[in-house]
Amino acid sequence: DGGITQSPKYLFRKEGQNVTLSCEQNLNHDAMYWYRQDPGQGLRLIYYSQIVNDFQKGDIAEGYSVSREKKESFPLTVTSAQKNPTAFYLCASSRTGLGSNTGELFFGEGSRLTVL
Amino acid sequence: DAKTTQPPSMDCAEGRAANLPCNHSTISGNEYVYWYRQIHSQGPQYIIHGLKNNETNEMASLIITEDRKSSTLILPHATLRDTAVYYCIVRAIGNSGAGSYQLTFGKGTKLSVIP
What we know:
The complex is a heterodimer of chains A (116) and B (115).
Chain A: E1 4-7, E2 10-13, E3 19-25, E4 31-37, E5 43-51, E6 54-57, E7 64-66, E8 76-78, E9 87-94, E10 106-107, E11 111-115
Parallel strand pairs in A: 2-11
Antiparallel strand pairs in A: 1-3, 3-8, 4-5, 4-9, 5-6, 7-8, 9-10, 9-11
Chain B: E1 9-13, E2 18-23, E3 31-38, E4 45-50, E5 55-56, E6 61-64, E7 70-75, E8 84-92, E9 109-114
Parallel strand pairs in B: 1-9
Antiparallel strand pairs in B: 2-7, 3-4, 3-8, 5-6, 6-7, 8-9
């Protein structure tokens, strides 16, 4: 079935360690996104990418990095520079292009990161 | 994108219609209204969207006022599985340029369906 796969679902890390969250989609979507969600809050955009080899900072990019070497993949690295990394991370994708972007985002199941 | 206002929480009896309101008084003529929901600890799920006409699909109905300053999402026969946070989002479709493909999620309305 087509969809978005995030892994791992749960992740623990020690302070000072970098960690990479995986996001893969087989929907043939051009655009991909990373959001962060804290308890009781809405979603905040970290990074997004509209095409391969290009990505843009969202509202809270500090302490995070991404790459987009393949259309299907958009991994997120939470670096040691991120002061408050414990959160629920959501990856999404969408079609792009004038007239083809209905604005519908398809989300993965999320990755819950806990820093010990 | 225009700002939206939703009540923080609502209850609905199982089997009854759930009517979730959303105010978007600063909406522009080219902005659509989107609804998503998020069941606990899962990714958000698209429900429906519309511009000015009422819309209906297998999940819900969307009623948009004539002045487009508010809308209501209707779940006609709420079930326990409809318990979730519902997000109302406003944005334009088809804009070019950086950031045009992102959606801004607020805190939404937490709907509790009660047996």
